[in-house]
Amino acid sequence: MRARPYEFITVAHEGRLTLLTIDRPAAFNALNAAAHEEMAAAFDAFAADDDQWVAIVTGAGKAFCAGHDLKQQAAGGGLVTPSTGFGGLTARFDLTKPVIAAVNGVAMGGGFELALACDVVVASSTAVFALPEPKVGLAALAGGMQRLPRAIGTKRAMALMLTGRQVPAREGLDLGFVTEVVEGDPLPAARAFAAEILACSPMSVRATKEAVLRGLDVPLEQALGEQWDYPAMRRMLASEDAVEGPAAFAAKRPPVWAGR
C-alpha cells in the first residue's frame, strides 16, 4: 500500500485500487477550499495513473461528507469549488474509470452530490442523505438538481430537494440512488465491488461507463450508432485486452489484463 501526504484527505494505493478518504472528522468531513483542491489533485492523479483502475471515496470518523464548510462561507470564504466540481469530482465528466462511494455516515449537500457522482454507492445502514440547501438559503449546485431526478425520477427527487428532508440509507436503496446497504463499515463491501470490477478488463469497464453516461441524454437509435466512435470504446476495440479476453476464454484460463 502506498500513501501520499495531504492535510485534509488521505490517499492510499492498494494494488490497482485508489482509496481516497476525506479526513476532517471534527467538521463531519465538510470541505473547505483547501480540501476541495486536495480532492481535485487526488482525482487528477487517479485519472492520469495507468496503474490505478478503480477508486473508492469515503470519510474518516462517523461522516461521509457534510458538504461545503458553511463556517468558511460565513467568514467570507465563499463557495468556490475546483473546475472539476465539488470534491474535484462532480463536474469531472471525462473520467471513465469507475468510482465507488463508501458512505459511512451523513452525506449532506455536496456530500450527497459527491456520492451521486460516483458509479456505485455502498452505504452503512446508519448513513443519512439529504440536499438541505434550501434550509440555508442555497441550492444544490454541484449536480444534485440534475443527477437525483435522473436517478430516482422527477417527482420523488422534487419531494426531497424542495424540503431538504433527510433520507436513511435503506430508503435510498428503495428509491434507487444507493446500490447496497450494509451493517457497520461499508468499506469491505466497497472493496468487494472494486475486486469484481478489477476482475474485468479496465478497457471494457471504461468503455461501458462512457457509453452508458453519454447515451443517457440522446435517443436510443443515436446512442447505438454513436457508441462505436466514443473515445474509450475505440481504445477498447483496438486494445490488447480485446485480444486477450477471447484468447483466455478459448484456452479456458483466467485473462491477464494489460489495461491497454
Automatic annotation (TrEMBL):
Molecular function via GO: lyase activity
InterPro entries associated with the record: ClpP/crotonase-like_dom_sf, Enoyl-CoA_hyd/isom_CS, Enoyl-CoA_hydra/iso, Enoyl-CoA_hydra_C
Domain of life (superkingdom): Bacteria
Signal peptide: none
Keyword terms of this UniProt record: Lyase
GO biological process, one term: fatty acid beta-oxidation
Similarity annotation: Belongs to the enoyl-CoA hydratase/isomerase family.
PANTHER family per record: ENOYL-COA HYDRATASE, MITOCHONDRIAL, ENOYL-COA HYDRATASE-RELATED
Protein name listed in UniProt: Enoyl-CoA-hydratase
